[in-house]
Amino acid sequence: MKKSWLSFAGGMLAMAMIAALMVPAMAAGTFSGKAAFGKVGVEVFSRKKYAPGASMTAASGEQVPVTITYTDAKGGTTHYIAAEKAAELFDMSKAPAWDSANNCVDFIAEHKGPVHIVKVDLDKGETVPADLPENTITVSHGSTENWEKLQAQELAAMPTAPKLGVTAGPIKEVSPKAVDRTSMGYSLYNARFESDTGVSEAVYCADGEYTLITVKNVSSCDVKWQVARPYTVQAGGESQKFTTIKIPAGQTVERAFYVPEGADPLKQTLSIGLTAVKEDAVTKVVISAETTQDPPTIGKSKK
Q1: Is the confidence at residue 85, as pLDDT, over 60?
Q2: Which residues neighbour 49 within 8 Å (Cβ) at sequence distance 6 or greater?
Q3: CA 44, 48, 49: angle at the middle one, nearest 5?
Q4: What residue ranges of the chain are covered by domains with CATH 2.60.120.680?
Q5: Do 212 and 179 touch, CB atoms closer than 8 A?
Q6: Is the domain defined by 159-292 classed in CATH 2.60.120.680?
């Protein structure tokens, strides 16, 4: 349902932009120029995203232009791009919404739907549902014993190795065995972190290269390792997530990621979070990040 609404809103935005350009007289003034559809393409960081003449599918099913060029009475040109395509290009966490009450395009709109309350009674063996709707508040209650039991169950079910092949934007998690280590260079080398609230770090993954992240857990207990790709423009920390794993105390784990050549620079940063699973434990980890300098084809070693 949410996906359909976003598609409908995107179509409304595209059609509203086109209609606005076609109307010669508006409250703000009279426009006497001419509009040309799909005359120009779009590049970001000098990388082509849409060629001249590119189109998109509106909610009606019709093909509409991604760009419009407006030529004014003096021959000056102004270029426009569909709002939902602008949101995609600049890596916004949500598609723009159509605010019909104010006749506005709303980028990163506040959620205006109902608030869902999910109550979880730990003493009855209830657990938090997996797929919760947007704008959900979870209320959990129960004895300390059952709360600790639930946490232990979640920890026991947490894997010690990630699922390979998961992608977030252009970044793909691959096996560390795919990396030719003879061409690696460090961006972070044996950096030691200690915190009673958890450790977070950002790692940039260059396009056309592998990135290898190594974490040694020197805490007194297991550490939860979360990896995500945060959106460039977001309202509250939204991100695309990779597998969350646990690192047993005293062990070292490697994770590898690959970004294809020509990927969007806005979408190449990873956020890593490490948290000791025991409530009073200090998170102590040693982190290294390496990047291939002259990468082989993914999955193959150089000769």
Answers
A1: yes
A2: 41, 42, 43, 89
A3: 75
A4: 159-292
A5: yes
A6: yes
